[in-house]
Write a structure and sequence with these properties.
about 500 residues, mainly alpha, two-stranded antiparallel sheet, 19 helices, 2 strands, globular
Length: about 500
């Protein structure tokens, strides 16, 4: 089974997409059952992958076949301690998203088909070891989310979908040119060839800019973030969950897989600017989040602020003293990976919980809520737990990643760590103010008194995400132990000069 495991994992999403279309004429109950069963099969596949993965510096479960011989491109898949966790994240979030779509959507089959197609492309990107294959999966992940927002989103869905599509597409064009250049220079498109290819500083700088154009939009980084609040505001709940928890992580993964190991000298050159932009995202965007009255926009801006921690963890590596760069750099990159995973679960939980509230109230404005803790106490409790993880409260998954990144930043410059730590303060301010205005105080209208609390199905989704957040917060070794060797190898690659090699 291991020989074709990764292909099976990628094809699972394609099969799910086709199967959902095949049952689209059946009763809604059959569509829901099919969607959830396919998601559970995916959980079984990804769990087998995680348990079978042995901590190592090498990629595992490698599949390597001819694809485009004339260009030197191959169908090459594999996972290491970084990508294996992102694959597992994808499958758990897809399960929660599919269950959410089954509850909120009248077009269950079409919604779940797009979710499964998104899953297939994201997992393919995380598993790809060939640059051209990675680009194919990366670019293809754009289409299903574009269709999902455009077809099932809110009133201004078409504008938001077009904005998302154009932003991402423009960044991807430079990424394609950079990939082709590397492939022709190396004579092949495998990541291993890219990592060993000697490059001048100018070449690295141009490649770095091309990579960053794609990954900074996808993540997104300040100031290329304006598409995300619109996309989240207009997307259906399951779409926001996928976008925040999985698709944004493709940007962070790109920095780890491309910028740091392929262009280490350019990363060193640009690191002060990348750190400054990251700190602006953390502080300024955190302040912008505080000003929002639309709850989904607030969560979207919070995601941008938290993704600033990801790029800070990546590029503060190059500001570390040489004596501690390997040890502390490993700590920072461990924080980056952990933060991406924990943010995936907490952001999915926030969007999911608020989506359930939106289904009951029909408004996203903070001003239309109040006093809901007395009316829907179980939903309120789950929302508060996701808020705590988003803040970085000890005992939740959100704490570990942020703490590691801040500790690593402190070894670079104290003022960087001080500004980075402000993310916890800012998150606490805008998140707790949100909780107070929505769940405490006076009940805004008599209509609120008639709201009903969570159904069994809704509780199941939120319990799933809550358990994952608490497990990560209480036992971070689940990720740390399996990722350490791969992150150590990445640290070595990222700090080794390629000029004159």
């Amino acid at each position: 089974m291991s020989q074709y495991l990764l292909s099976s994992i990628v094809l699972h999403g394609v099969v799910g997409c086709v199967l959902m279309q095949a049952v689209s004429t059946q009763r809604v109950g059959i569509q829901r059952l099919t969607a959830v069963l396919m998601a559970l099969i995916g959980i079984a596949l990804s769990s087998y992958l995680w348990f079978a993965y042995v901590p190592s510096t090498e990629f595992q479960f490698i599949e390597n076949r001819e694809w485009i011989p004339s260009m030197g491109a191959r169908y090459q898949l594999g996972v290491d301690g970084i990508s294996v966790h992102l694959v597992v994240l994808t499958y758990w979030v897809v399960l929660a998203s599919v269950m959410t779509a089954c509850l909120e959507s009248s077009a269950v089959a079409s919604s779940c088909a797009l979710i499964y197609f998104t899953q297939a492309m994201a997992v393919g990107a995380f598993c790809a070891l060939d640059g051209l294959l990675f680009y194919l999966f990366w670019e293809s992940s754009l289409l299903p989310m574009f269709l999902y927002i455009g077809a099932f989103g809110a009133a201004k869905r078409r504008h938001a979908a077009k904005k998302y599509f154009l932003y991402t597409l423009l960044g991807s064009l430079l990424f394609l040119l950079a990939t082709l250049y590397l492939g022709f220079q190396a004579g092949q498109f495998s990541f291993s060839a890219f990592y060993q290819l000697p490059l001048t500083l100018l070449e690295q700088q141009l490649l770095f800019i091309a990579f960053t154009a794609a990954f900074a939009i996808k993540l997104p980084m300040f100031p290329l973030h304006s598409w995300l609040p619109d996309a989240h505001t207009q997307a259906p709940t399951a779409g926001s969950m996928l976008l925040a928890a999985i698709l944004l992580k493709l940007g962070g993964y790109g920095f780890l897989r491309y910028n740091l190991p392929i262009t280490p000298d350019a990363s060193l050159f640009f690191s002060p600017w990348m750190v400054i932009l990251s700190l602006i995202a953390i502080v300024y965007i955190g302040c912008v989040a505080y000003q929002q009255t639309d709850v989904k926009r607030l969560i979207a801006y919070a995601s941008i602020s938290h993704m600033g921690m990801v790029t800070l963890g990546c590029f503060s590596l190059y500001l570390l003293p040489d004596a501690v760069i390997t040890q502390i750099g490993l700590l920072g990159l461990s924080g980056v990976l952990f933060h991406m995973i924990s943010h995936g679960f907490s952001s999915a939980g926030l969007f999911c919980a608020f989506g359930m509230l939106y289904q009951r109230v029909g408004s996203r404005s903070v001003n239309d809520f109040g006093g809901l803790m007395r009316v829907v106490p179980i939903l309120s409790g789950f929302f508060f737990l996701f808020v705590l993880s988003n803040i970085g409260f000890p005992g939740t998954g959100g704490f570990v990643g942020e703490f590691l990144i801040i500790v690593a930043s402190m070894s670079a410059q104290f003022w960087i760590a001080l500004l980075a730590a402000s993310t916890m303060l800012l998150s606490a301010i805008y998140s707790l103010v949100l909780v107070r205005r929505v769940f405490y105080g006076k009940i805004s209208t008599s209509h609120m008194l008639a709201l009903f609390d969570l159904s069994v199905s809704e509780r199941t989704i939120l319990v799933l995400l809550s358990v994952l957040i608490i497990v990560l917060g209480c036992y971070p070794a689940l990720i740390m132990d399996k990722s350490e060797h791969s992150l150590r190898a990445l640290t070595m690659l990222s700090t080794y000069s390629k000029i004159g090699v």
